[in-house]
Structure formats: structure tokens, C-alpha cells
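The protein record quoted in full:
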Amino acid sequence: MAPVTLNVYDLTSQMNSWTYWCGVGVFHAGVEVYGIEYAYGGHDYDVSGIFATRPREAPGAAFRESIHMGETDLTAAQVQHLVQQMGHHYKGNKYHLLQLNCNHFASDMCLQLTAKPVPS
């Protein structure tokens, strides 16, 4: 079993510092498992928009907090396979700020790994 962690980032840290305590803000999220953080972003091509980074180092975002989501029974190889399969849905050119974004991906991945969605 491996721990699954949701890493949350500020995209607009100045505004988020005022609005975070009201339960709103502009955030990025990634899912860390087996020492790799997976996230989703947009681009112009009809291929996966899922990318991997070192944990808590998402490009263009300021790390805010980590939330332990639970454990996964999947092996590292099975996680890689899951990410490849999820890439068929989470394509770069399908990214939408409100309807299909990094937070949707993170919740979906956490659900696949731990049977729990991310907290609201």
C-alpha cells in the first residue's frame, strides 16, 4: 500500500490570502503517489494533458497544503497504467476552466486510488 496525497496550490496567492477563509479561491491541485505528483493542464493538442512533476513543485503555482487522502492498493506500475487510461479523457485540448480542470482530475484520480473524492 502507498499513501495518496492531494497537493493544493494557490494560482493567485494575493487574492487567495483574502478569500481562502471564506471557502473560495483560485487553486491548482495535483495527486502525489509513489513519489510522483500527477496533475492536469491544457494545451492545443488532442493528447493527454496529464503531466508528472516532483511533489509540491507544480510550475506556475505556489504550494499551499497537502491533504492525506488515504492509501492505494495499486502498484506503481498500475498507477502508471491508470494515468495513461485517464489521459484518454483528460486531453489537453479538452481542458476547461470550469467544466474539466485540474481539480476535476485530482478528485477523479483520488477516487480511483482511494475510493474517496477530494474534500469540497
